[in-house]
Amino acid sequence: MAPFGLRTRLVLAFLLVAAVSAGTTATLTYREARSAVLASAQDTAVASFREQVQTLAPELPIDPVLLREYLFVIASKSKPHPWVVFAEYGSLRVSSGTNPASTVITPDLRRMTLARSRGSFQRVVSDGVPYLTVGVPVLVRTGPGSSMPSGLVLFAVMRMTDEEANVDALVTAARDGALPGLAVALIPALIAARGVLRPVRQLRRAARSMGSGRLDTRIPVRGSDELADLARTFNESAGQLERSVDELQQAEARARRFASDVSHELRTPLAGMLAVTEVLDEDADGLDPDTARAVRLISAETGKLAVLVEDLMEISRFDARAAELNTDEVDVGETVRKTLDHRRWGERVRTDLPDGIRARLDPRRFDVVVANLVGNALRHGSEPVTVRLSVQGGLLVVEVADSGPGIRPEVLPYIFERFYKADAARTRSTGSGLGLAITQENVRLHGGTIRAANGPDGGAVLTVEIPLHGPHDSQEATA
């Protein structure tokens, strides 16, 4: 599961876009404003310093005292902020400040100043303080319109703390403006998320409603965007599904009705056939061998048909939700013994039936459950067959195990299906093919479950679990 819901992710995405846009705008604005602030102060200082230097016409050789006076004059006319002016002439170092040399002036600036007649400038930071350093060579006129370097170079060093403060103020303003901007952007983000999520929520509710069986559920379609297309597609799919399910239900109802009608119609002639075959069975010993074999075959097949018809009618009652559960409190061990004795399986089946286990069951349907499981184990497994009875966590547990080869893994998921045959070549069987399906329906009617598996030492194991006090603690229930 995602750590955040779709609404949260939409809002976060919207705010992220707003934050990136605000950050990009603020960054570009900051860069332009910073360049403008620094360039303005820089251009003013460079132009002013060059103008002051051009008025200086030193006499060679340089007089340090007179040069210092010139530096004071130039420093007094500094703008936009006070300068400290430094002069370098060979090994001579003079300044308008307290120190004759500056640690802020870099070798790169000296090299660029000597290489250009108009000098150069550089912004440096020393001990966290920003400075503008300007270097201009002093020229000596050699004739009309011509001049040459005198060897004297003047440098101006100006603090730019005011400009830096202005830039910091821009950063603070951009930051302080971004937070309210994000808060304002939250409102359209919530509105947009709500507009996107409304049809999504409707789709979720509609899907849940359809999942609960309401196939007539539809979504109102608004607009013509992708979400509206999704709603229309959902409604079309729901309509097609509803029609398909209706057709399947009608076909299933017709099939159930057909099976039920056929079973009812067959009961009457089958009853007569069974009566006749019983008489024929009694007189078969007096007939010739071929006729006797034919009589016994007819009698056996008529009995199988009667079992199949009865099982089909039972399944029809389950399908029609007409199967009733008439419960009573019984001794489960004694009930299982009666089932085995009634079918004369006592010598072929081992039992582990503790005394005193009582449960609320439908005796007739529980007899069918045990009889079908044991009969199936005897027919398709190997003896001995074992029936175990126990109580686990408020559940009655009945376990029927045989000593055969077990159930193939690919067959296990299907053994409770109607008419399923694990061996496709086994087209004839002593059972109807509905025994385990009827067993499962009877167990469900009791509110229990049944499962099939293979034992650790081989052999199939079928386990039934039924609540001791019956389904919903009632004495009578209808499926």
TrEMBL record:
Endpoints of the signal sequence: none
GO molecular function, one term: kinase activity
Reaction equation(s) it catalyzes: ATP + protein L-histidine = ADP + protein N-phospho-L-histidine
Keywords: ATP-binding, Coiled coil, Kinase, Membrane, Nucleotide-binding, Phosphoprotein, Transferase, Transmembrane, Transmembrane helix, Two-component regulatory system
Subcellular localization: Cell membrane
Principal cellular location given in the protein's record: membrane
Gene3D superfamilies: 1.10.287.130, 6.10.340.10, Histidine kinase-like ATPase, C-terminal domain
Coiled-coil boundaries: 231-261
A UniProt-annotated Pfam family: HATPase_c
Database matches in InterPro entries: BphY/WalK/GraS-like, HAMP_dom, HATPase_C_sf, HATPase_dom, His_kinase_dom, HisK_dim/P_dom, HisK_dim/P_sf, Sig_transdc_His_kin-like_C
Highest taxon listed in the record's lineage: Bacteria
EC number, UniProt record: 2.7.13.3
Domain HAMP: 194-246
PANTHER family associated with the record: SENSOR HISTIDINE KINASE GLRK, TWO-COMPONENT HISTIDINE KINASE
Protein name, as recorded: Sensor-like histidine kinase SenX3
Source organism per UniProt: Streptomyces kurssanovii
Classification lineage: Bacteria, Bacillati, Actinomycetota, Actinomycetes, Kitasatosporales
